[in-house]
Design goal:
The longest helix is centred in the C-terminal third of the chain and has 20 residues. The protein contains ten helices and 17 strands. The protein has a nine-stranded mixed β-sheet with strand order 16-15-14-13-7-12-11-8-17. The protein is α/β, with parallel strands linked by helices and about 400 residues long.
Length: about 400
């Protein structure tokens, strides 16, 4: 095995700068080799910032190269075509969520990666936060005993202001031929937004914490801020019917219960994740919210000591190069990326937070949407699985 895996990053925007590029830059197992962005100037700027030797605007040229081991897809919008092209080219693949909007396509991508011996990873960022990693470790060690109830929140006030454009891309001209999301104003036509964008990481954590599959869900979606700017090019607000808040209840095969709440019009700071697990022998609450200069806390209680007390997160749960006071985006993502590099280099079977995990999450998102449309409980899985 080579000393370092050679990495191509596709998409050099805001999140690549805040999370992906710093994470690859500091992983001792990765070598940033090329940055690809449709905007050449941006690719050049990022390459200079992170000491990356090459840039391109042509993703096809990246995929044709024999000397690239890992392709990281950090574009905004539909990732599905780039994911399949990356796997087709025989590269290990990290991609931002969602891999695809329909769970069947995510399973298909997982099966393709498996059949080619490729590792996959999805930007399910928050399971990789040091405090969350430690919480999930404690749960696996039996700290809470049999899990009874999981409560999950992923929420902040990112879109509370209607003048914050729905589309986060920095557009220079209006995209042609794109479908107008949320154009149908009827309440029953509301489109999935926060449930997918914010729901995926906390749904992922809920499955890890309970350690089982969901058996059934019932949920609802709501549009609280009906009029907002569509893009950075629009000055007027228009009716956009998307879920800016959602909630669901679920029961797991092992009998545990969960409630999940997602929203980006709820007052509070980033990233706005909270996971609570209550079991027969204890309870843990992990909070990933920037408050008082701290972006993560973990508290624990036991039946004979019911006041929640803070736990210190051991050093081994932090990423390489961690310095106290580091911001959440680079700290959490450095764990994600280094974990992925280790999985590839070690060649161990399976991996954490891969396309299979993402497919399970996407299936739940699709089931909650169906539950809302049919106004009732929906059973999972939505259809028998061929893998997973
Ligand atoms: N996991 C998380 O916590 C988290 C947080 C923030 C953003 N994200 C996700 O990260 C992704 C990127 O977000 P962003 O804010 O950086 O977006 P952005 O718009 O700032 O950047 C995306 C970049 O991708 C480039 N691009 C698009 N298509 C391309 C292609 N085919 N080839 C090459 N370059 C291409 C664009 O030119 C743009 O510069 C999104 O999917 C977003 O949802 C995830």
């Amino acid at each position: 095995m080579k000393e370092r895996l050679r990495v191509a990053v596709v998409g050099a925007g805001k999140w690549a700068r805040a999370a992906h590029l710093p994470a690859f830059h500091r992983s001792p197992l990765a070598q940033l080799t090329v940055i690809c962005d449709l905007k050449e100037d941006l690719a050049r700027e990022r390459a200079a910032e992170f000491g990356v030797p090459e840039i391109t605007t042509d993703v096809e040229s990246v995929l044709r190269r024999d000397d690239i081991d890992v392709v990281d897809i950090c574009t905004r919008g539909d990732h599905q075509d780039l994911v399949f092209a990356t796997l087709e080219a025989g590269k290990h693949c990290l991609v931002e969520k969602p891999v695809a909007s329909h769970y069947r396509d995510v399973w298909r991508a997982h099966e393709m990666a498996e059949s080619r011996g490729l590792k996959t990873k999805v930007g399910l960022t928050f399971r990789h936060a040091p405090a969350m990693r430690y919480m999930l470790h404690l749960v696996r060690e039996g700290f809470v005993g049999q899990p009874y109830i999981f409560n999950g929140f992923e929420q902040n006030s990112q879109w509370l202001d209607p003048d914050v454009p729905m589309d986060k891309r920095d557009l220079e001209q209006r995209p042609e031929g794109e479908r107008k999301i949320g154009a149908d104003p009827r309440p029953e036509a509301i489109e999935v937004s926060s449930l997918e964008g914010y729901g995926a990481p906390i749904i992922d954590i809920s499955l890890c914490a309970v350690g089982d599959e969901l058996r059934e869900v019932v949920g609802t979606m709501k549009n609280f801020v009906p009029y907002r700017r569509r893009t950075n090019l629009d000055t007027a607000r228009e009716r956009i019917n998307i879920d800016d808040a959602s909630m669901y209840l679920g029961t797991y095969t092992n009998g545990a219960l969960c409630s999940i709440q997602t929203s980006y019009v709820t007052v509070g700071n980033y990233p706005g994740v909270e996971a609570r697990i209550y079991g027969s022998e204890g309870a843990l609450i992990c909070r990933l919210v920037e408050e008082d200069g701290n972006c993560q806390t973990l508290h624990a209680a036991k039946p004979d000591s019911v006041e929640f007390q803070p736990l210190e997160v051991p050093r081994e749960f932090f990423p390489p190069g961690y310095t106290p006071g580091e911001g959440w985006a680079s700290m959490f993502y450095a764990n994600l990326v280094h974990d992925f590099m280790e999985e590839i280099v070690s060649g161990e079977a399976g991996n954490r937070g891969d396309f299979a995990d993402s497919a399970r999450v996407q299936e739940i998102i699709n089931a909650v949407e169906r539950s809302f449309r049919e106004r009732g409980w929906v059973q999972l899985p939505l259809e028998p699985r061929s893998t997973g």
